[in-house]
């Protein structure tokens, strides 16, 4: 389905991927890194053709994930898409040089004609710290310094700056400059109010990862974000909240549960295994996790749309992005999910969240 409509009402809707490489639990087949990257690019093209608003790629430095440099894959995607926004999801900001990051994403912005964005986080994995020579003891301090430097880079063509963790800058020219006046940057927040408060204090977007349970338990993060922004005198209209989470959509909710359960179980089995944790989940528990009043977006288009709308009533967020491709799910199923999200879920959500 090709959708060239540019002006949309309601919240933005998109998808993101971490590029995990796991065996299909039904066939035992594991795709190669090359195939996984090709499928990520094709998924972005499908999302753009279908009329979704955002496509994101996460960063990991492990052999069981396909993408260590989101900006390179996003640059390839920029060449085969026309309208969709292209974002990291997330960039591990504690272990990347902010100048290099800014220049890379400015280049992406030029290649994509103004579609580049960044979601920055501290990362759930810590491999990048020893890999790039950073001390894990500076986990939070590195993030704080790097995001503040990035925001300065975003404002001026040349800057002078001095910090704790990198060499000083003296009238340094920061090139190239993006098409956009500023590169949009969001802070990825897992569950800490301190991270939400920081995003609000800085006056930038906040992307919340809601992977299950009751959505209401994340309301304090949104409240803290807006309270912190108000205290720092940022205009409410400049604040943006995004909700991110796992999703699987099929014609009926029972079909969605039946098809997704082995992949969901598989995903959390190897993710928890990476952290030395054994994972157990019964089908009965999974059905409870996907009940209408929970935050796991698994079900029919109508049920998924209703969950997004209920969360919008709770958070008043501006963007929803779904992770559709976890646990070794075959690309055919991912493509079907993109089509259902764009053709059946998005119209319901956009209508319900449009200004009255």
UniProtKB/TrEMBL annotation:
One Pfam family per UniProt: Bac_luciferase
GO CC terms of this entry: cytosol
Entry coiled-coil feature ranges: none
Keywords associated with the record: Monooxygenase, Oxidoreductase
Domain spans labelled Luciferase-like: 12-315
InterPro entries attached to this UniProt entry: Bact_Lucif_Oxidored, Luciferase-like_dom, Luciferase-like_sf
Highest taxon above the source species: Bacteria
A molecular function (GO) term: oxidoreductase activity, acting on paired donors, with incorporation or reduction of molecular oxygen
Protein name: LLM class flavin-dependent oxidoreductase
């Amino acid at each position: 389905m090709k959708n060239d409509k540019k002006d949309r009402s309601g919240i933005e809707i998109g998808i993101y991927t971490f590029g995990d490489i796991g065996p299909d639990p039904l066939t035992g087949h594991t795709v190669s890194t090359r195939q996984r990257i090709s499928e990520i690019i094709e998924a972005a093209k499908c999302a753009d053709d279908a009329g979704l608003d955002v496509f994101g790629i996460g960063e990991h430095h492990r052999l069981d994930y396909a993408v260590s440099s989101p900006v390179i894959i996003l640059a390839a995607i920029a060449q085969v898409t026309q309208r969709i926004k292209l974002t990291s999801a997330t960039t591990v900001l504690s272990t990347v040089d902010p100048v290099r990051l800014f220049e890379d994403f400015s280049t992406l912005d030029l290649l994509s004609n103004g579609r580049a964005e960044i979601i920055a986080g501290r990362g759930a994995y810590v491999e990048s710290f020893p890999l790039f020579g950073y001390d894990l003891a500076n986990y939070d301090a590195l993030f704080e310094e790097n995001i503040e430097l990035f925001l300065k880079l975003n404002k001026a063509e040349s800057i002078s700056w001095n910090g704790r963790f990198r060499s000083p800058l003296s009238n340094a020219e920061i090139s190239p400059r993006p098409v956009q006046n500023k590169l949009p940057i969001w802070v990825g927040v897992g569950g800490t109010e301190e991270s939400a408060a920081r995003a609000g204090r800085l006056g930038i977007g906040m992307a919340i990862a809601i992977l299950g349970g009751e959505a209401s338990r994340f309301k304090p993060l949104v409240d803290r974000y807006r309270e912190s922004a108000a205290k720092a005198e940022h205009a409410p209209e400049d604040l943006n909240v995004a909700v991110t989470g796992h999703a699987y959509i099929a014609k009926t909710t029972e079909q969605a549960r039946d098809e997704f359960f082995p992949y969901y179980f598989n995903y959390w089995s190897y993710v928890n295994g990476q952290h030395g944790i054994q994972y157990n989940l019964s089908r009965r528990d999974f059905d409870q996790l996907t009940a209408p009043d929970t935050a796991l977006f698994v079900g029919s288009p109508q049920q998924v749309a209703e969950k997004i709308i209920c969360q919008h009533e709770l958070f008043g967020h501006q963007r929803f992005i779904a992770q559709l491709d976890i646990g070794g799910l075959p690309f055919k199923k991912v493509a079907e999910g993109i089509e259902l999200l764009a053709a059946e879920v998005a119209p319901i959500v956009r209508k319900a969240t449009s200004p009255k």
